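Can you please make up a whole protein chain along with its backbone structure tokens because I've never seen that pairing?
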Amino acid sequence: MAQITEPKLPSLKVGSSKYKGNTYYYVQTYTFHYDPKTKHSIRDSQKTVGTIKGGKKYGEIEFKQEFIDEYPDLNSFRTYKTENGIEFKLIDDELDVVTKALKVKKLIGGATWAIDKAISQIGIGDALRSTFGQYKRHLKLASIINYMIQQRTCVMHNYEPFAKSHWLPWSRPLNDAQIHHLFKNITEDDIFRFFNALNCGYRDKFGEQFFKRLFVALDSTSISNYSKELSLADMGHNKDGDFLKQINYLMVCDEISGSLIYGKTYKGNVVDVSTIKNLLADLKCIFKYDGDDDFSPNLVFVTDRGYDSNDNLQDFLKHGFNFVMRAARLELDTWVSSTIDKHIDELKDFNNFDTYVEQYVYTAKVEYKYDDYPIQDKNKNNTTKVDTYVHMYYDPKIYNQQRDNIVFNINLARNSYNQRVQDFYNENGSASVENLGKIDIGKMQSFIRHYCSFDAKGFAVINSDKVHKKLKYCGVMALVSDCLSDPKEALFAYMNRQRVERNFETHKSILRFNRPYSSNDKSFQGKFLCEMLATAVSIYFETNLKNYEKTPDAAKDNIIINSSSMSKIIDELNTIMLVSLKNGFYFDEVQGKYRHLYKALGVPVPESLYKYESECNEKVEDEEPYEKPDEELMQIGGELM
């Protein structure tokens, strides 16, 4: 028994005409173009290639000979127009079997498998489906996240050729116009709903225990850009030092796993210390369950010096969030520096040296007063009281290093200055205060100005009181917390906040998202969301790699982990090919080191054969209506009446 494949015909349409009271139906091929003004397809030409026998809407099609010559497979079939489209029946051999034309593709699929499994395991997949399930946008966004991770870029111009050669959740390639349309329809409200779904998923997956006391690292970074159309771009404290307009990115993540809790953007001229109030208001909206029930996670925010202010501390307290905050600029007259001054002797007492952290450690309990319900333009009553802990740390190594450096530089500057004074005396025999005041030794002059006095002849003399005042807080660090009374626990929480800095390093360096590559606001938020999620997946892989490195399996599997491991592993996995069929796919045999690579990333190994009903095999009208239709996606006979 032979298998004969159905002919593959171009797009066809059915037209009709009336003649002497009779209706005739004919079949035509056609061409069309896209009109950007009307945003509709306009038919250019059409050509009649056959008629339907019997003068009825449905029935056997009689094709013209020139069309049969172009598609000779039609000689073996009778072709019918039915309510369900085009059907073919063999003319002669009843033993032959008609099969549909089978599309078989061989695609790169090893890395996509790992990324898709990670998206599912983290909970990003469920949150995407919940928020962007309409028109299958979640599959399109997941495909773009795959592209960003595998290509390590957020430049979208190369997505279309990438999608043609790689197996992706959304199998149809998206052109630039379609991606722009997808991004511009993602609003800030969508992003809020996504993070709500993500955090609700955390609670469902890990239970209430996950949010009992979750230490989260909070930090921001600046992303420079050249665009003149991005409303968030402005001049500010550029952390890259490239003197360009910037947009600030903020990230809140779990200190231990690095899991993304929340991310947002804000104007480039806003300083870190001013962002807490809006952030906490955002989180109040995000931490809702099923739209009604607030699940109020007990987050402990761990922040660096950039967020230290009494207003931020009070905002944390008023919104019910705990904190571990590093105090900044202790030399200023603040309640924290006053507390340190009061207990400086206890801090440097030899009995308070901790051999584990190799520092002197001391904690003072302070009653902090604030206004729980402040009224604008009115003085704060500061009647609400809460116990806070000022944890003080003194590292003599830092002190000694700073002392040696500053004393060396002051003496170097003093000797240089005094030599200039002596030279002046040697040349002139005498000198006036006015003439000596003109002596300048360049950059070292600041040491003379800040730390020296002058004797009767104008020679510089080091002022020990000024030096001691400068060194007063060298080697001293203070952490303020409302919930941690143990200084070592507070210190470990603060040290773990470096996690968010490494996450931004992944975002900017490993994935190369150091520029937004968006020319205007329309598509910026959609791209930002994909960048954040690509970063979250990469962080998940990095965490799994580091955990795997500590296991005996790492040495046994002979996998060496380093800073570039994730990128190399993704490239290695992209040598694994996948055969894609209409209703399924199967991978190459996965053996040897590739099984170990999947294990190191924390995802299962793909089996040799998978069958599935592709979510992309849906009717075209179920898709999101793009501004410009993709002609390549037109189905055979799709416009038949």
Observations:
- The chain is about 35% helix and 25% strand.
- The first strand starts at residue 3 and ends at 5.
- The radius of gyration is 35 Å.
